[in-house]
Amino acid sequence: MTQNPHICASWADTGHVQVWDFSSHLNALAESETEASRGASSVFNQAPLVKFGHKDEGFALDWSPLVPRRLLSGTTVNVFNGILPSSFETNDSFTSDFKRGLQELYTFMGTYIWFDMKSIWDIRIGKAPATSFKAHNADVNVMSWNRLASCMLASGSDDGTFSIRDLRLLKEGDSVVAHCEYHKHPITSIEWSPHEASTLAMTSSDNQLTIWDLSLENDEKEEVEFKAKTKEEVNAPKDLPPQLLFVHQGQKDLKELHWHTQIPGMLVSTAADGYNILMPSNIQTTLPSDL
């Protein structure tokens, strides 16, 4: 939970969503290792604060950044306000991911909304989607709402493509402002940078983590200077997108990535064989110590 970081939620394969208070575990990290050195048990049996269920196992789970105790979960979309869950209608067989709108979009739309890449719900006026549209030709796996430009949505598909949408263009019929087919396997995670409005990163089942800057364009003059400087010993592939900023490899079965909210340019990625913490050398950053 954004407002109370020690409160966490989890899905279970039984179809239940459970809310936990991990404050005792976090406090234990700050304490000395005296008890551990004496052989004290590190296993804790803890009951969840809240438990409620869906008919089936689900995948999507997200806290509201503005309203404390408001949690969304889905096979169908379920809004939990800290008392009892309220289900919202959806035609999808399951909801794989969703993100909550941020403050600018709340003001623009006049209410709180959530988005699952096919439908937008207004939880104050009804349980049916306010609007729906086709997002990709294949299943939509993940999505991310831009915190610095709240009209922009990024989504990653099972066919390896990702798209950028401007929600202000929804009424005009074609809200796609960028579409890329670089990855050849499913996109497993996608997230906008919290520090640069035009930068986002994603992971794919092709074992690549890629970082993109959508503000970049081909610069022929710069390419000529680069070739002259390197005596054409290093040439970028002709089919390389100019917006592709960095490629990180070495992990197998990448599942998720997140930008560090306090250290610009730092990312954490998780995979079947461990996790990596990285800071790409070609991303300009200002560390807290430099401020």
UniProtKB/TrEMBL annotation:
Keyword Repeat: yes
InterPro entries in alphabetical order: Glutamate-rich_WD_repeat (IPR051972), WD40/YVTN_repeat-like_dom_sf (IPR015943), WD40_repeat_CS (IPR019775), WD40_repeat_dom_sf (IPR036322), WD40_rpt (IPR001680)
Repeat as UniProt keyword: yes
WD repeat spans: 180-222
Annotated GO CC locations: nucleolus
Keywords tagged on the record: Repeat, WD repeat
Any one Gene Ontology BP term: ribosome biogenesis
PANTHER family from the UniProt entry: GLUTAMATE-RICH WD REPEAT-CONTAINING PROTEIN 1
Name of the featured protein: Uncharacterized protein
Lineage: Eukaryota, Viridiplantae, Streptophyta, Embryophyta, Tracheophyta
